Amino acid sequence: MNGANLDDLVDLLGRWASGRGPLYLLLAARLRALIDDGVVAPDEPLPPDRVLARRLAVGRGTVVAAYDLLQQEGRVVRRQGSGTRVAPLDLPATRTADGVAANPLLLHILYPPDNVQLLTCAAPHDAPPELWEAYAEAAGRLAGMRDMGYQPAGNPELRAELAAYYTGRGVPTSPAEVIVTTGAQQALTLLTGLLVAPGDTVLAETPTYPGALEAFRHAAAVIRPATSIEDLRERPALAYFAPTLRNPDGTVMDNPSRRRLAALAAEHDVPLIDDEVRAELCFSGERPGPLAGFGPGGEQVITVGSMSKLVWGGLRVGWIRAAAPLISRLARLRAVHDLGGEVVSQLAAAALLRRLDEVRAAQLRTWRARHDHLCAELRARLPSWSFEPALGGHTLWVRLPHGDADSFAQVALRHGVAVAPGRSFDPLGGHADHMRLHFLFPEEELSRAVNNLAVAWASYDGAGRTVSRHPLIV
């Protein structure tokens, strides 16, 4: 990078060091914003470590650590002898950087590969008939509305339905304790933006939902894997748990542990996110209670939910249930972003909540059958792979007998199937021998996917065996 461009970059960085937290996180956060906004273009070279450190009057280690963090996120590429460059837009969706895979869930949504079965993005593909009926009901309600539709905290009818929903589950809730969001991902982003500053520690389970990890990294947080719920004693700025059907492995936390987790949050004043996005998806039909209903920690527990996992991925209606003062702060922050969500979808969501038991029963029958089919296919065609049948949800957490899921994912992609490697689900890039597979496709498509995975595994395994009598189908 020549002197003029270096001057331009320093000007763009501005007062990057004025925030709170370690300098390398502050520098990485500012560079991340410039890259994500396109101000620093793809493939553009960045200054050498020593040059930028000298110009910013910081130690070289600060720049190296910032660059390394951005490389881990897939935003820059560092090669010995070639320096550091902003990552190109057309890098493969399964690329890895510094041993940690880029998030294939988000990348496959942004850049879906052609002629590939996506077992990466686990959201319902087929909208149930109740959704169309709910939209018809919502459209009829518009005729009587006298409202501009700007509702940063959400549609009042939906907020009332959600308050009744949680009250019915044993957690007394008023509409003032609910804010509606554009899906659970926006809920996590808003909460992180409000509660986490650069350099703050966020405690997260492992494995866990990659979208949450992306939100925490974007806030320049230090993500620490939780070895046990007792880690709340160290008072992180935020804790993130999914006690009911955790994504990706579908585990369910027992009630004594829930009670202990809520108590620790209260005792140590730790905001605790209870991700309940998959709470309605238990195959048993049982529905464990929200963390907010366990013990004295209710005020510290922040419950996040969504319609997209139960109904349809395109129904972008999520919510946050929390103490009313926090909801008020979130509504003000939400107003800065988009003045509120789309009203018709919120009215449809309210109608669906009134039919929740009916919708859930029909969906779970379908998904349980597809789950059983995928398990049977994997056992028959890939007996060396190991997994536990899911208790609910949409996914299986599969372990490979050897090798790593990142490199196998590349082989699988060439055979027409995209899988989510396990490192994406780990704050430190662990679980390299795992991958997540969803079972939301119809049985015929699941059989085709497993057949192609078996052919890919034979190629990756190098054993030269005939894995399937069926031809490769892409």
Structure notes:
This protein has 474 residues and is an alpha/beta fold. It has three domains: 3-90, Arc Repressor Mutant, subunit A (Orthogonal Bundle), CATH 1.10.10.10; 100-122 and 358-461, Aspartate Aminotransferase, domain 1 (Alpha-Beta Complex), CATH 3.90.1150.10; 129-354, Type I PLP-dependent aspartate aminotransferase-like (Major domain) (Aspartate Aminotransferase, domain 2, 3-Layer(aba) Sandwich). Helix content is 41%, strand content 13%. The protein has 15 helices and 17 strands. It has helices at 3-13, 23-36, 49-56, 60-72, 104-110, 129-142, 156-168, 183-195, 210-218, 255-267, 324-337, 343-354, 356-381, 405-414, 443-461; strands at residues 45-46, 76-79, 83-86, 96-97, 100-101, 117-118, 178-181, 201-204, 222-225, 238-241, 272-275, 301-306, 318-321, 395-399, 417-418, 420-421, 434-438. It has a seven-stranded mixed beta sheet with strand order 7-13-12-11-10-8-9, with helices on both faces. A three-stranded antiparallel beta sheet has the order 1-3-2, covered by helices on one side. The model is unreliable at 91-101 and 463-474 (pLDDT under 50).
Descriptors:
Arc Repressor Mutant, subunit A, alpha/beta, about 475 residues, seven-stranded mixed β-sheet, Aspartate Aminotransferase, domain 2, Aspartate Aminotransferase, domain 1, 3 domains
